[in-house]
Amino acid sequence: MSEDQRIAQYAHPNSLVTTAWLEENSSSVVIVECDEDVLLYETGHIPGSVKLDWHTELNDEHKRDYLTGPQFAELMNEKGIGRNDTVVIYGDKSNWWATYAFWVFKLFGHEDVRILNGGRAKWIAEGRELTKEVPTPQSKAYPVVERDDRTIRAFRDDVLDHLGLPLVDVRSKPEYTGERLHMPDYPNEGASRGGHIPTAASIPWSSAILADESFKPVDELKAIYFENTGFNPADKFVAYCRIGERSSHTWFVLKYLLGVSDVRNYDGSWTEWGNLVGVPVAVGEEPGVVSR
Amino acid sequence: MNLRATEIAEDFNFLPEKDRLQLLLEFSENLPPLDPKYGEHPELLERVEECQSPVFIAVDGTADQIRLHFSAPQEAPTTRGFASVLHSALDGLSAQEILDTSDDFPSALGLDKLISPLRVRGMRGMLARIKRKTRELNS
């Protein structure tokens, strides 16, 4: 099956573009690179793309939260993004931070945001052009839009209410079982308990991608997220990881590729849950049960 | 803190915040290539588990002059930058000078607001391993 055919089968095929499409259409969209490595953009990026730093630009400086409406509008003006623009986001690490940025754009209701299938790695692997030339964006007077945290974002109390409903832990297996407090080879981010939220299914984020970092065909994704878990796509879902970036990737898969209409990303994730006083934690391979 | 480390920290802090990343990028581009004896024998290198990207180190030499070797991929410029800063600050110093370097050197670069704490901690991990291996060589 070609990549175009794969994309056509997803629930929202317009949310993904191929590298070939982007190369042809780069002048009619705004391309945004959002990486984990803050220096990667400077080493070479897709021509015309602007850099978005997840750490310093999407988060409030003083509070563990995202930008406010006026701050987001200011950011969009700096990046030369208009409210009606088509924004294509790509990045390193299989698009973790690209999907995270996508999710933040959706908190502000930006209509037309798309992910570059396969991200930075696929673009480079195909030998497509990179440049060090940095564009100078012009403000397009982005309106101030209030952030909507109700529909795609879950807070800890939402998760407590959600226990027993489809909950997806996208971290690595040793993090899920509680053997490790963080991803293998990653530094600890300071959770005082290891394990997972009781009843959560373990589906590591990487289950959703192929070797070239593009997304798997829809039938394979359905098997992984629904058939193997017994979850029903009509149910309400919550996904979490450690700080909310890998779970944005899974949130994107569930919502845009598989068409789950009610799915929220718990961005507090394990750095919050693993430190919360009094909440239940399950350890080991089994999802565990809720004791109320 | 040794003189070279102090000077590097001063160079970073002298710059406005935004330009500090550019300096780190320059360090990243100037990380010396891996000595062939390690390139051909990667098992002699130790992986720095604290780092988000694959980075490997080796420490050899004598108590009078410790040599540092780093391997980090091109697609991880921040990690390469940190490795290169440590190389510039510490390579060729005596074991005692390396052990006397402040554990807080990574934070002294003034990058904490620009780079997530997670990554700066990765550099601390590299420094901790360099010191441990220096101690092992010395014992």
From TrEMBL, chain A:
* Domain Rhodanese residues, every copy: 25-132, 167-282
- Cite the source lineage: Bacteria, Bacillati, Actinomycetota, Actinomycetes, Micrococcales
| Membrane-crossing segments per the record | none
Matching entries from InterPro entries are given as:
Rhodanese-like_dom (IPR001763), Rhodanese-like_dom_sf (IPR036873), Thiosulfate_sulfurtransferase (IPR051126), Thiosulphate_STrfase_CS (IPR001307)
Domain of life assignment: Bacteria
Which named protein is this? Sulfurtransferase
Catalyses which reaction? thiosulfate + hydrogen cyanide = thiocyanate + sulfite + 2 H(+)
PANTHER family this protein is in? Answer: THIOSULFATE SULFURTRANSFERASE (PTHR43855:SF1)
Give the keywords, sorted: Repeat, Transferase
GO MF term set: thiosulfate-cyanide sulfurtransferase activity
Q: Which SMART domains match?
A: RHOD (SM00450)
Q: Which SUPFAM superfamilies match?
A: Rhodanese/Cell cycle control phosphatase
From TrEMBL, chain B:
What protein name is recorded for this chain? SufE family protein
List, for all copies, the residue spans of the domain called Fe-S metabolism associated: 10-132
Q: Which residues cross the membrane?
A: none
Tell me which family the UniProt entry assigns to this protein. Belongs to the SufE family.
Q: Which InterPro entries match?
A: Fe-S_metab-assoc_dom (IPR003808)
